[in-house]
Amino acid sequence: MFNKEEFQSLKNFLETLKGDIIKCSGCGISIRSYKKIFEHTLNIEMNINDNELTTLAKGLYFMSKNVDKPLFIYDDKRINNIPIQNVMIASFGSSGQFLKVGNDVNDIKMLAASGEGGSSFLGLSRLISQMSNLNHLEAIKMATSGDNWKVDLCIKDLHKHFDKLCELEMDSYQIKETTYNYGNYSGSLLSSKFGKVSLDIVDIKDIKTEDVVSSILHSTVSNNTRMMYLAAKTEDIKVAYVCGNFMTYNPIRRICLKTVNQCQGFFKVL
């Protein structure tokens, strides 16, 4: 996936490859638009694979055989080699796609697709900000300068809200206020996205565009990582490979992936 704001660096990159590339293949919708540029710059014929997910699996196999030190985000030393069997490939691009690679590179099973990703985040950010020329990096910068908890509702906020509503009833029954026990849940856990707005806990006039965009970013990433977790749990998958442009420049990806890693007990999230 190529963004228009990144094209200049792509052009420079292709210039450095002249004469060194004999064969080139690509997959994904956007690569079709750039096919002629690749062929013209590199003086080669480019092969386009319609099955993006199969290509990802084969790319994983190639990396495992040819790259000695891949970049690991989370790593458990109990696994010394990169497994290529019974693993998940989680692709975070315009939307989230999650597939399982079984016994070999041709044993591929689609587990889930979210329909929500980088395009969703950017589209909603443009609508909220009324900035039709906003690009991904600008939207990310806007999100990181905002505070999603200005609009998002956590468990303790929810209890405080209903405690306030029933104060008069408590007085009539002569019930003394006590500290609420959240049970097995932390009061800081998310209860509802934009929940503070729906319960009138916050004045809409005090909410900044950056706060809303921040909530959209957290929602998009957390929904996808949650789907990743559920798919892995269902298939008893212990190793997940994460790819996709949306997770490359996303500053909260590590937080969400760390949470998934801890919940599912992944040996590796790569």
TrEMBL record:
- This protein's superkingdom? Eukaryota
Gene Ontology cellular-component terms for this entry are: cytosol; nucleus
Keyword vocabulary terms for this entry? ATP-binding, Coenzyme A biosynthesis, Nucleotide-binding
Query: What Pfam families does this protein map onto?
Result: Fumble
Q: Which terms does the UniProt entry file under GO BP?
A: coenzyme A biosynthetic process
What is a GO molecular function of this protein?
A: ATP binding
Q: This protein is called what?
A: DgyrCDS10068
Cross-referenced Gene3D superfamilies, in alphabetical order? Answer: 3.30.420.40
**TM annotation in the entry:** none
